[in-house]
Every structure is written in C-alpha cells, then in structure tokens.
C-alpha cells in the first residue's frame, strides 16, 4: 500500500525517533508499504518519520543512481546492487574531507541544494530480520545513508544550509507546508492535519 509522505513543516520530521523491537506490530507489512511508497515517489531512500512514524527505521536503494554516467562502471555496479533496510541505526564514525552534493528530499519536493557531508561512515544497525551488522560505507551510498539517518535524528537537509540559503528558500518551504505544490505522489501536509 502506498502511504502518504509527510511534508516539510510536520512536527514528526523534527522528532528524534525511538528504537524498535522485533515485536513491532505488523512490521513486515510496514516494510513492504515503505518500499512501495519509496519506489512510487522515485526515491532512493525513505525514513519512517517521513510516513509519520517516529521510529528508527529507514530504507535505501541506490539503484536509480546507477543510470547516471558520471559514475565509473564499478561505481554504477555497486549503486545498482545496493538495497538495504536499517533498523535502530547508529553512525559510530564519520571521516574524510567533507564534499558537496546536490540533495533533495521526498518531504521537501522541488527543493534541491548542495549539502556538505563526510565521505566515509561506519554504521551499526539491524537488518529487516533484526540481525546486527557493523559496516563501513563511502561515497554516494554513505551520503544517502547519512541523509536518511538524519531523518531519524529529527534533522532535515535544509537544516544544514547557510542562513542565506535558508532565507532564499523560505517561501518555497512555506508553500510546501501549506500544500501549495504540484507533485506526482501522495503527500500529507501539516495544514491538512489541523483542519480535521
């Protein structure tokens, strides 16, 4: 089932999410719905807060980037094959020189800005079977993980922008929170919630 994606301005996007256990109700269905929702919106990542749930769960599938010819053949192969579920993730290390990449977010449609992040990360997480892993990632995969990880920490990519950039996009963000935007996937806007 395709779920509505929560738009910028909803308080759930600013909450630090809580850990979950294997007893989480209807977990398999939730996971299935989140993947379906992400693919329907042509996303490469989706975090539970983006569907209104303040839990430490996010998905990453970088295969759409594999079509981009700015990457080497080896990088394209790696991006095409990378699909992962992260539960209760914790980034334990970030290293290297920060680099800029133009990021966007399904909760903030039509806004793209350069964000600086470190290129190498180490993450402890549980997979969809609640099996523990500790892995290191780099490059674009690390960046997508960092972006989604920020969601479960209550941080949006727009929080990482300079105050000047924030002022320049203020009107766009306001329109998104009011639902004044054309998008081709289901969204839930903060203004809609208040009317009920």
Query: Do you know the CATH architecture?
Result: Alpha-Beta Complex
What is the terminal-to-terminal distance? 23 Å
Number of domains: 1
Kindly state the mean pLDDT as a whole number?
95
Strand order, biggest sheet?
2-3-4-7-8
CATH fold topology: Peptide Deformylase
Any chance you could write out the topology, listing elements then pairs?
Layout (H helix, E strand, L loop, with lengths): L4 E2 L20 H14 L4 E3 L9 E5 L11 H9 L1 E13 L3 E7 L2 E10 L2 E7 L5 E7 H14 L10 H16 L8 E2 L1 H6 L1
Keywords: Hydrolase, Iron, Metal-binding, Protein biosynthesis
Catalytic activity: N-terminal N-formyl-L-methionyl-[peptide] + H2O = N-terminal L-methionyl-[peptide] + formate
Family: Belongs to the polypeptide deformylase family.
What would you say about this model in short?
The protein is an alpha+beta fold and 196 residues long. It has a single domain, classed as Peptide deformylase (Peptide Deformylase).
Descriptive account of the structure:
- With 196 residues, the protein is an alpha+beta fold.
- Strands 2-3-4-7-8 form a 5-stranded antiparallel β-sheet, with helices on both faces.
- The longest helix is centred in the last third of the chain and has 16 residues, at 163-178.
- It has 5 helices and 9 strands, in the order E-H-E-E-H-E-E-E-E-E-H-H-E-H.
- It has one domain (5-191): Peptide deformylase (Peptide Deformylase).
- The protein has helices spanning 27-40, 73-81, 139-152, 163-178, 190-195, and strands at 5-6, 45-47, 57-61, 83-95, 99-105, 108-117, 120-126, 132-138, 187-188.
